[in-house]
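Narrative summary of target 7.
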Amino acid sequence: MQNSVRAEAGMAEIEKVIRNHEGPTAVYEIRFRNQAVYPPLYLASDGSVLNSNLTVAVGASEDSIAVSTGSEASGLKMDDLPANVVLTIRHQAPTAEVEAISRVSSGNQVYYTITFKSPLHHPELMIRDDGHLMQ
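Modeled conformation, tokenized:
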């Protein structure tokens, strides 16, 4: 479901998630902090995007792994990262200049790959979304 939210709203700040159990499957209503720009998003438990009348607008992807890169097309920047990830980067490579950021999700696991402009001095980091460095 996280992939569906990010595909529809990018890194928009989520204000509230409401789970509705009525009917045969659970439906999630995602409300964003900036409601003028981001209206409520409705998702089925499989990640399908739903219209407000709960019909399927976009079916869920069958891919179990999704990747976003820090290229201009996706726009991943340090400001887009969870605070714990940024803290880990600053602790591991305080003077390094970031070359690219990739966001990888597999099932319910999310992690970020950070590459630096000087890879000889600062090797690539792989950090979970909770800020723990992966070995």
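The chain is about 15% helix and 35% strand.
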